[in-house]
Each structure stands twice: as structure tokens, then as C-alpha cells.
């Protein structure tokens, strides 16, 4: 059975109660939150909503004006406009602005609400997946056009160089060219793997309950050789052994792995010192990875989560620029959020928060994409 997280925005107490009561009479499992005005939208803590029932007339604002704000904050939600009287022109305007549907209060029944939720939310989920696939296609095209151009050109040049050096008997130069060939080949393989990781998560929707300790262990085991070679010291004292959550375990472990790998990769002159924290909150789970690395300038923090964007000062450090973008994609698909706090030359803390959901709720969220 599907679960639906629904927000009701209406200044009339009676109308909000009516909607809540009728939603409870459907065959769906519906969790509702309420807001009486546009000002109260800022108090809504939900990072993910499946649907919003938005009153057309709100104090100091028209619903059509609020529609853009709602869609900006919860882009995956289906927004349904609600008004006291039917108005075809209003319905047309609302749908043109992105509303999923429109209903007059006099026409509201439990059956009508259930039909709207099933149809509207289903369409919103499908559109969300299509949008994600379009973004992935754009990412793939960008890799082909830009990231493979230089190494392919290098391989072509080095192959010609090896041929010339062999004919000239310059075996020392041959060995150097072969070393550079291997380096270019590894770069292309790493780029393709990063791209594959970034895209393939859309096809993994298996949700399991797992402990925070297990997720950290998976990430640490995958990086055991890197940790040893870098002489990295990792503090696990703040990993709460009682933390359990429902998620796509391989993906969340991948997020931790990417963050730990970055902490090692972008270290300062000193050996990497990394602290990992996993803590329970009242309705969420908080993960943090802190380091003593080179840090990130304040005006660059948001850019590092974009595909192929790397902070200034990281030129020459191996990487594809997809690791943090993949982290953000995974966390958002789990209904969470990810952020960064950093001081140049002192270190960086990456944190992400996942909602405390049942396995069924997490599976339903996975369908949103």
C-alpha cells in the first residue's frame, strides 16, 4: 500500500479539517501537515512531500502566486489547487503554471481525493524520473564531449610516439610513453566508472534496514588500502552503535566512501585526520565526515556538488568531479539533504541527514526518483 506525505495549505480551519478527515477515509496511507498561510510554509520541516493541496485564496496572496514557491521548494510534489467555486479559467492557469489538478471545495469527496492523489502523484513521480534521465543524458554527453577528448587525443599521440621511438631504438622513451598511455587509460576507466556510478543508482530500489556501524564499515573496507597508504587516522568514537535506518545500503555506504576518499585525497601537508560521526535525532539520522584538509572557499561550497565542478586549488589532484554530485543525488533520492562547512587551510566537514523512515516509506520514496 502506498504512503503519501501531504501538505494542506488553507487559512480556513474547517476546510483544513475537512480535507484531513476525507484523506483519512481513503484506502491510502496519508500523513498530513498543515499551514494556514504563506508565512507558515517556512515552518514546514518536510524535505519531501508527495502532494500539496493549495487554497486559491490565502491571506495576502493568491494561490497561483504561491504555486511557484511551493513547486520550487518541493519540485517532486503534485500540487492541487483548491477553491470555493469552480472556475475553468483558473484551472487552466493553474495547470499551465505546473499544478497537477484543480478541484472546487464543493466537489471534494474521499473518492475524488484518492483519485487525484493516485493520478497526480503517479504522474509527478514519472515526470521526476524522466527529468532525472534527461539530466543523466546531458551528463553523459558532457563526458563524451569534454572529459574523453583530452585522454583520447593523448592516447593517439602517444601511440604514434611509441611507433617512432621503436623505429629509432629509443627504448627509454618508449617506456615513458607506455607509462603515460597507462595513465590516460586509467583516467578514462575512472571517468567511466564514476559516470556509471552516477547513473546506475536510478535502477537500484531495494530498501533494507541496516545499522550505521555497518554502513561505515562497508565504506572503510572499500578504502582499506587507500587509508593504509595515506597513513590516515580515522576517529570513529562518535559513531552511535544504536543507529538503524531503512535505506539502499550500498548507496549510503557509497556516499560515506566518497566523502572519506575526498578527505584523504584533499589532505594538507599533514597526514589525513578524519572524524566520522553517526547520530540519531528525533526524526532523522545525521552523518558527518570531518577532516584537516585544504578546505574550500565559502563561495565555492555549493559548486562542488555540481557535476564536473571542482574547487580552485585542486588542479592536479586525480578525480572526475562526479563524486560529490553522486553523493547529493543519492541523499536527495532518500529524502535527505547534504551540505558542507569549510575553512580554507583548516579543514572541511561534509554532513548529510536522512529522515527516519520505515522500510515501506523508504521504498515508496525510492519510486519518486
Q: What's the layout of helices and strands?
A:
Blueprint: E1 3-9, H1 13-24, E2 29-35, H2 38-41, E3 51-55, E4 57-58, E5 61-62, H3 63-73, E6 78-83, H4 88-96, E7 101-104, H5 110-147, H6 149-168, H7 171-200, E8 208-211, H8 212-222, H9 224-230, E9 233-239, E10 244-247, H10 249-265, E11 273-280, E12 284-290, H11 323-333, E13 337-343, E14 347-355, H12 359-368
Parallel strand pairs: 1-2, 1-3, 3-6, 6-7, 9-11
Antiparallel strand pairs: 4-5, 8-10, 11-12, 12-14, 13-14
Helix pairs in contact: 5-7, 6-7, 7-11, 8-10, 10-11
Describe the structure in your own words.
The chain is of the alpha/beta class and 369 residues long. The protein folds into three domains: 3-130, Rossmann fold (3-Layer(aba) Sandwich), CATH 3.40.50.2300; 134-200; 208-367, Histidine kinase-like ATPase, C-terminal domain (Heat Shock Protein 90). The chain has twelve helices and 14 strands. A hairpin with a 3-residue loop joins strand 13 and strand 14. Helix 8 packs across helix 10 (249-265) and helix 10 packs antiparallel against helix 11. It is elongated.
Amino acid at each position: 500500500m502506498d504512503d503519501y506525505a501531504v501538505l494542506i495549505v488553507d487559512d480556513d480551519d474547517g476546510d483544513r479539517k475537512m480535507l484531513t478527515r476525507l484523506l483519512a477515509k481513503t484506502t491510502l496511507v496519508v500523513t498530513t501537515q498543515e499551514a494556514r498561510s504563506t508565512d507558515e510554509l517556512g515552518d514546514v520541516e518536510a524535505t519531501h512531500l508527495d502532494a500539496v493541496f493549495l487554497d486559491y485564496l490565502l491571506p495576502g496572496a493568491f494561490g497561483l502566486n504561491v504555486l511557484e514557491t511551493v513547486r520550487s521548494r518541493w519540485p517532486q510534489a503534485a500540487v492541487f489547487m483548491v477553491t470555493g467555486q469552480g472556475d475553468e479559467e483558473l484551472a487552466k492557469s493553474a495547470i499551465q503554471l505546473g499544478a497537477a489538478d484543480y478541484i472546487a471545495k464543493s466537489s471534494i469527496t474521499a473518492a475524488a481525493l484518492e483519485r487525484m492523489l493516485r493520478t497526480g502523484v503517479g504522474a509527478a513521480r514519472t515526470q521526476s524520473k524522466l527529468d532525472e534521465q534527461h539530466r543523466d543524458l546531458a551528463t553523459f554527453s558532457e563526458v563524451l564531449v569534454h572529459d574523453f577528448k583530452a585522454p583520447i587525443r593523448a592516447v593517439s599521440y602517444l601511440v604514434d610516439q611509441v611507433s617512432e621511438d621503436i623505429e629509432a631504438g629509443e627504448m627509454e622513451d618508449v617506456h615513458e610513453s607506455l607509462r603515460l598511455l597507462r595513465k590516460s587509460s586509467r583516467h578514462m576507466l575512472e571517468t567511466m566508472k564514476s559516470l556509471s556510478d552516477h547513473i546506475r543508482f536510478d535502477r537500484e530500489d531495494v530498501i533494507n534496514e541496516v545499522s550505521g556501524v555497518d554502513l561505515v564499515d562497508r565504506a572503510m573496507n572499500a578504502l582499506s588500502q587507500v587509508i593504509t597508504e595515506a597513513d590516515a587516522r580515522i576517529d570513529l568514537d562518535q559513531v552511535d552503535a544504536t543507529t538503524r535506518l531503512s535505506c539502499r545500503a550500498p548507496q549510503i555506504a557509497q556516499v560515506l566512501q566518497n566523502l572519506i576518499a575526498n578527505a584523504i585525497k584533499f589532505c594538507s601537508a599533514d597526514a589525513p585526520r578524519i572524524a566520522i560521526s553517526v547520530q540519531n535525532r528525533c526524526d532523522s539520522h545525521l552523518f558527518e565526515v570531518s577532516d584537516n584538509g585544504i578546505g574550500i572557499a565559502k563561495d565555492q561550497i555549493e559548486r562542488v556538488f555540481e557535476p564536473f565542478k571542482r574547487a580552485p586549488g585542486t588542479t592536479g589532484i586525480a578525480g572526475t568531479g562526479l563524486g560529490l554530485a553522486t553523493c547529493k543525488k543519492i541523499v536527495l533520492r532518500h529524502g535527505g539533504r547534504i551540505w558542507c562547512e569549510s575553512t580554507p587551510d583548516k579543514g572541511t566537514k561534509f554532513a548529510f541527514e536522512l529522515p527516519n523512515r520505515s522500510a515501506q516509506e523508504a521504498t515508496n520514496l525510492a519510486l519518486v526518483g
